[in-house]
């Protein structure tokens, strides 16, 4: 009997296999939404966001394969809202952090298009999320009743036009054996320096297809696939300081990656630079003029500006709301524009990882001019309105399994006060002489950074430099230094920008915040600032290895 029951169950689960995942989700959404209208507190909105993910990850260290993995996942995110657009279960419960979009839930779905199995998962998950939404809605109403009047009285959810879009998805393919060989070959270059303790190369291909349906009538299917190659190496100075360097490469197709020879050349440069960094003097604390390379200034703007214009933070009473009252006011020099544009795939020949067609709330991506001639104009908006900004501009983003909030995309800094690279150096030297400083600093490479936007801690930023040079006012040769972090507060730092270069640098990365990790880019010219502050970097107290590194054995 047991075997017969299993056989019958298997037959019942393999019918309707030809249905697409979008059709299955749409059918189940209509059914569940209709049934829940019979409840005393029915949902006014439901969306199903399904993400198909296929990853190939290859990692090698010092010429040896460490991992060669594949993973496939299908993740369902549910946004279910009870109440109405004005006040629903996602309403901020004051005194509680990070509760935006509180109606979401996620579930792993079967990988094949087995309609019955998928529908059962969606049905059960929707039921669970609905019950949680009812409970949260009651808490939100109670919280609103006992707290002081809310400053921002805008609605909890914006009304947006429904969208229908579907594109054919051609999954990225590679010769896997060839890339295993490449990754091993590239990482083997680090064996040339026995004082490099970590020398690795990683390859990540991600085929990502997104499906979105909601009760407003939207149906979407689109592709967000990409490839990243990551080179990482680390050594240690005699005083115990860890000295990491890295290089990363982003592309939408394998053909767009740089040739193997270019990556090899970059690795050899990293090895040489690590050797210099081991001998470089420690930098003391410093306050004075500096130049940030395009890559460094891109990260600089991402941290000190980008996170502060993510609209949902302006609604949160625990957030600093730095620019809440700044619309129409000057916040940057009049030669600076700041734009967020997820609609473009490349800038100056470099592909941008913050490109996407639709955000994770089913809204078409839009270019947002946040600063125009130094004047602040707009926030990045998801479907959580704030005072003066009633609609989304296509920046509701998230990692699969999280709730969408307003997030950055392709940050682009533009300038009308551009000079040649050498002229920017001369302007730095002039500023040093004016301030009676022996030298200024040039931040060439950074690894990222972080910032604080809450009211309970100082609103500071910390950008993490990897390669920093002293530029002497008297024209002496530049000097590589180590051991500093770039720190400050946003408003005072903005007022110190003097000029920019003609050259543009690009930083492609993954930004982590309350809605998970999302791909972003930041591109900017080099910028000259009259005053920047650095503090000493934290360093390990452990000595370099006592034992000599093993000698590399070569075989014919």
Average pLDDT number: 89
Distance from first to last alpha carbon: 64 Å
| Radius of gyration over all CA atoms, rounded | 26 Å
- Globular, elongated, flat, extended or rod-shaped: what is the shape? globular
Number of strands: 24
Number of helices: 8
Q: Which bin fits the share of residues in helices?
A: 10-25%
Query: In percent, how much strand structure appears in the residues?
Result: 35-45%
What kind of sheet is the major sheet? 8 strands, mixed
Poorly predicted spans? 1-17
Structural class: alpha+beta
What is the total domain count? 3
Description:
It is a single chain. By secondary structure, the protein is α+β, with helices and mostly antiparallel strands. It has 3 domains: 2-51 and 72-165, no CATH class; 176-279, PmbA/TldD superfamily (PmbA/TldD fold, 2-Layer Sandwich); 286-536, no CATH class. The chain contains 8 helices and 24 strands. The strands form 4 sheets. Strands 1, 2, 3, 4, 5, 6, 7 and 8 form an 8-stranded mixed sheet that branches. The protein has a 5-stranded mixed beta barrel with strand order 9-19-20-22-24. Strands 11-12 form a two-stranded antiparallel ribbon. A hairpin with a 4-residue loop joins strand 5 and strand 6. Helix 2 (21-36) packs across helix 3 (115-146). The longest helix is centred in the first third of the chain and has 32 residues, at 115-146. It is globular. The N and C termini lie far apart (64 Å). Mean pLDDT is 89; it is low at 1-17.
């Amino acid at each position: 009997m047991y075997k017969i029951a299993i056989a019958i169950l298997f037959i019942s689960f393999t019918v309707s296999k030809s249905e697409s995942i979008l059709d299955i989700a749409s059918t189940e959404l209509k059914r569940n939404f209709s049934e829940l209208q019979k409840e005393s507190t029915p949902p006014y909105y439901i969306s199903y966001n399904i993400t198909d993910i296929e990853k190939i990850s290859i990692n090698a260290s010092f010429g040896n394969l460490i991992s060669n993995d594949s993973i496939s996942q299908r993740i369902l995110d549910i946004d279910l809202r009870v109440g109405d657009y004005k006040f629903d279960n996602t309403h901020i419960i004051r005194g509680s952090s990070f509760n935006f979009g509180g109606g979401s839930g996620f579930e792993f779905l079967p990988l094949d298009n087995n309609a019955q199995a998928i529908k059962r998962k969606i049905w059960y998950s929707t039921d669970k999320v609905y019950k949680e939404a009812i409970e949260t809605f009651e808490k939100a109403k109670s919280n609103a009743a006992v707290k002081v009047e809310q400053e921002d009285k805008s609605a909890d959810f914006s009304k947006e036009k429904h969208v229908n879009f579907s594109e054919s998805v051609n999954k990225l393919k590679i010769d896997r054996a060839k890339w295993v060989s490449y990754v091993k070959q590239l990482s083997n270059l680090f064996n040339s320096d026995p004082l490099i303790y970590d020398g690795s190369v990683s390859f990540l291909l991600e085929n990502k297809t997104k499906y979105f349906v909601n009760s407003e009538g939207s149906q979407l299917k689109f592709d967000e696939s990409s490839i990243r190659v990551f080179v990482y190496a680390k050594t240690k100075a005699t005083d115990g300081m860890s000295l990491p360097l890295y290089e990363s490469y982003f592309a939408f197709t394998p053909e767009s990656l740089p040739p193997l020879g270019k990556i090899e050349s970059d690795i050899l440069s990293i090895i040489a630079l690590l050797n210099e960094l081991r001998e470089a003097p420690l930098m003391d604390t410093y306050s004075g003029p500096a130049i940030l390379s395009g890559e460094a200034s891109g990260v600089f703007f991402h941290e000190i500006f980008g996170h502060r214009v993510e609209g949902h933070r302006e609604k949160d009473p625990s957030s600093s709301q730095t620019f809440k009252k700044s619309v129409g006011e000057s916040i940057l020099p009049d030669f600076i524009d700041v734009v967020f544009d997820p609609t473009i795939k490349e800038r100056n020949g470099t592909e941008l990882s913050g490109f996407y067609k639709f955000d994770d709330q089913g809204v078409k991506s839009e270019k947002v001019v946040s600063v125009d001639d130094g004047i602040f104009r707009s926030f990045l908006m998801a479907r959580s309105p704030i005072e003066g900004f009633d609609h989304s501009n296509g920046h509701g983003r998230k990692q699969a399994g999280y709730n969408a909030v307003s997030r950055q995309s392709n940050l682009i800094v533009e300038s009308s006060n551009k000079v040649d690279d050498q002229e920017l150096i001369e302007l730095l030297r002039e500023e040093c002489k004016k301030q009676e400083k022996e030298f200024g600093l040039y931040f060439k490479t950074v690894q990222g950074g972080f910032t604080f936007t809450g009211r309970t801690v100082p609103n500071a930023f910390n950008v993490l430099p990897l390669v920093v040079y002293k530029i002497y006012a008297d024209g002496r040769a530049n000097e590589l230094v180590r051991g500093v972090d770039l720190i400050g507060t946003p408003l005072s730092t903005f007022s110190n920008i003097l000029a920019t270069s003609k050259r543009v640098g690009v930083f492609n990365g993954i930004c982590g915040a309350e809605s998970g990790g999302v791909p972003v880019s930041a591109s900017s010219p080099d910028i000259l600032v009259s005053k920047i502050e650095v503090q000493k970097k934290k360093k390990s107290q452990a000595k370099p290895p006592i034992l000599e590194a093993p000698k590399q054995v070569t075989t014919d």
